[in-house]
Amino acid sequence: MEQMKTLEQQDGARKAAARPFSEVWEEAWRHFEERVRQQPGLHVLIAIALIFILRAIPLRRILVLAAKLCLRLALPILFLYCASQVTEASPDNQASI
Predict the structure, then answer these.
(1) What is the percentage of the chain residues whose pLDDT exceeds 90?
(2) Is-above-0.70 flag for pTM?
(3) Considering Cα of 41, then 46, then 47, then 49, what sign does the dihedral take?
(4) Axis-axis angle for helices 40-56, 2-38 (nearest 10)
(5) Does 95 fall in a domain?
(6) Are 36 and 43 in contact (CB under 8 A)?
(7) Which of 2, 24, 67, 86 has the smallest number of CB atoms closer than 10 Å to its CB?
(8) Which structural domain, as residue segments, surrounds residue 33?
(9) Residue 43: what are its φ and ψ, rounded to 5°?
(10) Are residues 40 and 15 in the same domain?
(11) Chain segment 29-71, per-residue pLDDT in tens
């Protein structure tokens, strides 16, 4: 029963800790909303520019290229990582030190 109380207390503590963060975001959103209402034209132009840039850049090709590079580099990186783990754990290194 005590274990259940501690879990409930931990959950309550997590929720209490999350509240200030969400309140900060709510305040920031209100501030941003007010700025947009004061100068809507500027924000519309920024949105249009972002849309144009995102449409001009071939994101699908970039993501496919990044995925291919990650897959090609995964095996050598894994090999180097395992090799470094083996050399750190070998008793020869400890004897020479």
Answers:
(1) 23
(2) no
(3) positive
(4) 110
(5) no
(6) yes
(7) 2
(8) 1-57
(9) -70, -35
(10) yes
(11) 999 999 989 988 988 999 999 999 888 888 888 889 999 999 9
